Amino acid sequence: MGSIFGLRGVFSIQGPRSIYVYSLFIGLLSGFGAYGFNWVLTWTESFTFGSLMGYNPGIPSGDMHFHSIGNVVSISPFWILFLPAIGGLFVGIITSFFCAEAQGGGTDSLIYSFHFKEGKIQAKVPFYKALATILTLGSGGSGGKEGPTAQIGAGVGSSLAGFLGAGARARRTLMLAGTAGGLGAIFRAPLGGAITAVEMVYQEDIESDSLVPCILSSVTAYLTYTSIAGSGSIFSVQEYSLNDYRHIPLYIVLGLLCYVVGFFFVKVYHLVQDIFSKLPLPNFLKPAFGGLIVGCIALLFPEVLGSGFGLIQRMINGEVLESTSFSFSGPFFLLAVALFKIFSTSVTVGSGSSGGLLGPSFAIGGMLGAFVGAMAQTLFPELGIIIFPFLLVGMGSFFAGVARAPIAGMVMVCDMIGSYELLPPLMIVSVIAVVLSHKFSIYRNQIKNRFLSPSHHWDMNQDIMDRIRITDHFSEFRKYAMVSEHVSLTELQSNAPGIQASDFILIGSGEEYKGIVSLRKNRILPEFEEDLKNLITCGEIVQDVPSVNRNDTLGKALQILLEYDVDKLAIVEDGKCLGYLRYIDLFNAYQNEVKNKQRKSV
């Protein structure tokens, strides 16, 4: 019986290995969640695009498992104009009255949660985010699928961390692991999903502490998703390699173009966000108004509707895109689609509808790459230019520039096509775009690096902590929260309020250190206290947490506290426990050390 009510202690996060195991579990759930979302969205689009609007945007090879758009009626200007507004109205009702966090791109809110909310996400957010995105994209809004799938995974990770009573550090890691799982599944990008998750939170850094959990989650989500939806990459691409180095100057031109258009995209998107935030309309009507604007754009360029991935697959297949509305084709048609996609995406997401920015960034970059390739075909026929490599390189490079994520942009595209043959030109173009784009980002909540993030605000001064020995500041240690291993859990729960502690140092009969018992992770519910009285001892649920001695540093002590998610640490010498130190004791010692150094420098 004791083992039953100690389950939370058994399953609590007790170090990196626990994080790895839970990352696999999060990846599994993220994969199922991404599949369910994509299934509902694809069926919705098959009705709205095929039966109402009469426009077939195409479908990427990786989504062929799902129901594609079948019989398409003739183009309906009425539905193209008004359906995005109808979808926006429903989204506005959801975000205004049920879940405000469901609006916008989703990724920016995840970044904000990581830095400023300790990775906390309300449990309702993934559901409403998925529903709002289905309404947005299903009605023709311009956005990506990654927002809700990332939110689903991140919500699973955050909720699981909350259930396990994990600390802020573990919660942030599990949240990012869930984000990676959602991205890895929906884009069929096991490594790209992980890299994107750890790179998107900073402008010039990566969250290296979460890299392994993110890889585990993303790979698991990918395997789960493809085991149901079929194996293969999201795009089907013929074999290609860069064997004509005369093409390299053209890729350099593409990098410069990605920078210029990326700067324009970021400025337009942020401007639209600011305009809609100040617009004198009720909040629930703003997405509908934005949808009406998108409908007006789509009357001229229905190619801007949806994610744009279907158009990319059609061009990869060698199809020459022509305007659906009027006789217009060629390189400048592709450039026009890219520019109007910028406006439609900015208005869709900036007005408060729900959709990701990563997918449209790929679509815009793909059109820019196709524009450069098509122009090169016309101007330099002797070079034997093939358009689709430029299209794919433009996808990754444009996203790398606007999101300040160079590695993610390269790896994500390679994963999405199932080949790394395009990695050399991707590296060239992505580096150009990122280096030139160092002063702007599509994500407003990105922070420059980990040392400026509240989530790592002690890392910057870790060198100081590592130089301070415990004996330099402490000669005596607290003993109030030290209990015998033979004390029952019910007795400890009864005495805890008087001691004002939740974590307790456990000692044996000879005052030897046994470990730590945390009432945050092990607690008998009041209705079972009488039945289980004196049946479960603290020694049966003890957590094995390393101790330190007086000659160890504050840095080592802090590392143990963070890694094992406890609020106090045992000080042991000659086999006996002398007492313990708390978080606040370490911070006070650090502050005193800093003050002493400041006085000496005056």
TrEMBL record:
Top-level taxon: Bacteria
GO MF, one annotated term: chloride channel activity
Gene3D superfamilies listed in its UniProt record: CBS-domain (3.10.580.10), Clc chloride channel (1.10.3080.10)
Pfam families, A to Z: CBS (PF00571), Voltage_CLC (PF00654)
A GO CC term attached to the entry: chloride channel complex
Membrane topology annotation: Multi-pass membrane protein
Keywords: CBS domain, Chloride, Chloride channel, Ion channel, Ion transport, Membrane, Transmembrane, Transmembrane helix, Transport
Chain ranges of the CBS domain: 541-596
Main location: membrane
Locations listed in the record: Membrane
Segments passing through the bilayer: 20-41, 78-100, 174-198, 210-236, 248-269, 289-312, 324-343, 355-376, 383-402, 422-442
Name of this chain's protein: Chloride channel protein
